Inverse folding.
């Protein structure tokens, strides 16, 4: 089956040939079905648009969870030369360092049998969620600057976690390029009271169980086993991150013509990475990324506390350990081999996850042999996956892979499809307890609104970008 | 939800698009604000009595629209006040000045049905029509 406008290279790779204005080819990792969906929602055009950006190295890529975004498609990956290329806030997204962390426990599923409702209810009370939710922490300006500079380490140093958590967070939970002085007063105002809040929409906190292990050796290294209770947290940089993106889109929108950059889409506003605007954005983006890591770290700490209290367990009995924390909206300066030469690149991952392969020096010692854990949340009614990064990802996608399921229904269509239904009861009949602040959220986030993440994972596994390690099934979901 | 006649939504897989009409350019910005808050609240925003003068600048009509709506979103989050109506909105050389009327979320027991992160530049349009003016705006949710 041909997919219009795309050249099929193999069962999982679809090429967009270089056309006028494009500085590189495009490449979509997808099955035929997912590639056709990308054409239908026009997100393949966005892959083309990204290929116009100055300094792009290699191809403009998209992962199989591709769908329409702002500037870059969701699922977009593109790397620019750090000396001569640009940085683009549209290649990161509004929710800077939106990401996922997975924690394992010493508990088997039967240990929480009959207590899931209590746990879910307690987590719903303890961890602020919902639109514009205010946190338990009210930071002074000095504290906020420390969060922006130190990230997850700030949280651990202030009693919200364990030092081991830092080791198992991407970038050790801190981008050292952070520059809090680059944040507007408005961004600082929005951030002082949202550390430790879940947010709303597709953010969630989930208690799950390891349903299946595909790769026993890697699963063991990650500390995962069948029947084990896990916790997954999906959240980002909240209002502070959105403000940083908005502030810098504006500044770059003004700067674009000054640098002689012609864009097919205004939302691809960018500036040379080494320019004042580029440095300003990167410094602010890194600070917002640190905020998100502190956010997820604080929420995991309160999750541990809640488990201790509700189940009457000691830390030694619960042994809630961070498996890994990944970002899926970020730009990072990384070194990659390109045509035999090591180059310093600004790698944009927007709705895409880092998937460094075995041996990479940036990985913690525990994961050097296996490759990086990659956490791929599905929708709240089905399953999520744990994958591992590969050498092939390093060769082809700058060490990148997919990030989740991707929507297939608009929120409006999902709300319409859900009308009259009790989504919470439907989930309960399948053994999933859901607690949510907003009724509409349940409609918008129901399974039918999303692609089947198994299809997305199939592509990246078969394309060699990341290998399947384990599958998780939800038992309880807390949503804002 | 029964929407006011001056706007309609359009399908967008991940987020929200609105198309807004008005007889005058100034009214277009006021209507866009009202439409945005209608989508946010799940109902037209009530008229409040808290007055605030809002001044926003923009490079062009489209940039001004994005700046204006994002300013109102910021005020909603930071002050907990929905400025969904304008008593007076004037377009100036480089922007607009509006006397906005707001109502507190808590005091009016309003719930936010849909969080809107930002108005985006994606496919933004502000144009003249036979009957006045039209804007198309996509919001990040």
């Amino acid at each position: 089956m041909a997919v219009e406008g795309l050249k099929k290279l193999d069962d999982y790779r679809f090429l967009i040939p270089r056309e006028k204005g494009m500085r590189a080819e495009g490449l979509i990792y997808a099955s035929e079905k997912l590639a056709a969906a990308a054409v239908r929602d026009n997100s393949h055009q966005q892959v083309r648009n990204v290929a116009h950006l100055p300094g792009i190295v290699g191809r403009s890529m998209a992962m199989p969870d591709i769908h329409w975004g702002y500037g870059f498609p969701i699922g977009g990956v593109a790397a620019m030369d750090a000396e001569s290329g640009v940085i683009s806030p549209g290649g990161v997204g509004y929710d800077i360092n939106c990401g996922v962390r997975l924690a394992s426990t010493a508990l088997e599923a039967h240990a929480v049998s009959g207590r899931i409702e209590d746990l879910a209810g307690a987590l719903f009370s303890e961890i602020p969620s919902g639109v514009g939710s205010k946190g338990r922490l009210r930071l002074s300006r000095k504290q906020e600057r420390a969060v922006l500079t130190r990230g997850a380490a700030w949280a651990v140093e202030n009693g919200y976690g364990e030092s081991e958590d830092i080791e198992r967070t991407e970038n050790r939970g801190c981008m050292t390029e952070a520059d809090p002085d680059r944040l507007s007063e408005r961004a600082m105002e929005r951030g002082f009271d949202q550390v430790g809040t879940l947010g709303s929409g597709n953010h969630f906190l989930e208690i799950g169980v390891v349903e299946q292990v595909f790769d026993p050796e890697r699963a063991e290294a990650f500390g995962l086993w069948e029947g084990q209770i896990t916790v997954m947290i999906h959240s980002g940089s909240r209002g502070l991150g959105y403000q940083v993106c908005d502030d810098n889109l504006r500044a770059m929108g003004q700067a674009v013509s000054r640098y002689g950059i012609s864009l097919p889409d205004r939302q691809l506003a960018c500036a040379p990475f080494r320019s004042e605007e580029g440095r300003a954005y990167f410094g602010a983006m890194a600070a917002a990324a640190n905020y998100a890591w502190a956010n997820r770290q604080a929420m995991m700490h309160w999750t541990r506390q809640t488990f201790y209290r509700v189940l009457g367990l000691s830390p030694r009995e619960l042994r809630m350990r961070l498996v890994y924390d990944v970002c899926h909206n970020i730009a990072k300066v990384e070194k990659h081999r390109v045509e035999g030469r090591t180059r310093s690149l600004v790698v944009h991952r927007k709705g895409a996850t880092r998937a460094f392969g075995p041996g990479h020096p940036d990985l913690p010692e525990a994961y050097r042999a296996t490759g990086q854990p990659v956490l791929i949340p599905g929708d709240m009614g089905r399953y999520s996956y744990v994958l591992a990064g590969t050498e092939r990802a390093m060769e082809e996608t700058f060490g990148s892979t997919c990030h989740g399921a991707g929507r297939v229904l608009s929120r409006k269509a999902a709300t319409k499809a859900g009308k009259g239904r009790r989504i919470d009861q439907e989930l309960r009949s399948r053994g999933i307890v859901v607690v949510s602040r907003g009724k509409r959220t349940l409609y918008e986030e129901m399974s039918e609104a999303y692609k089947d993440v198994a299809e997305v994972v199939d592509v990246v596994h078969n394309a060699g970008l990341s290998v399947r390690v384990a599958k998780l099934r939800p038992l309880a979901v807390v949503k804002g | 939800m029964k929407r006011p006649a001056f706007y309609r939504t359009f399908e967008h897989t991940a987020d929200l698009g609105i198309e807004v009409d008005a007889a005058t350019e100034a009214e277009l910005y006021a209507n866009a604000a009202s439409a945005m808050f209608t989508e946010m609240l799940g109902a037209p925003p009530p008229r409040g009595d808290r007055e605030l003068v809002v001044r926003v600048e923009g490079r062009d009509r489209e940039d001004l629209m994005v700046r204006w709506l994002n300013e109102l979103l910021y005020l909603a989050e930071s002050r907990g006040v929905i400025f969904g109506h304008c008593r007076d909105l004037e377009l100036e050389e480089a922007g607009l000045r509006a006397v906005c009327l707001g109502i507190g979320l808590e005091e009016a027991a309003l719930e936010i049905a849909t969080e809107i992160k930002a108005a985006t530049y994606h496919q933004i349009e502000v144009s003249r029509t036979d009957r006045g003016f039209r804007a198309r705006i996509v919001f990040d949710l």
Remarks:
- Chain B touches chain A through 32 residues (CB under 8 Å).
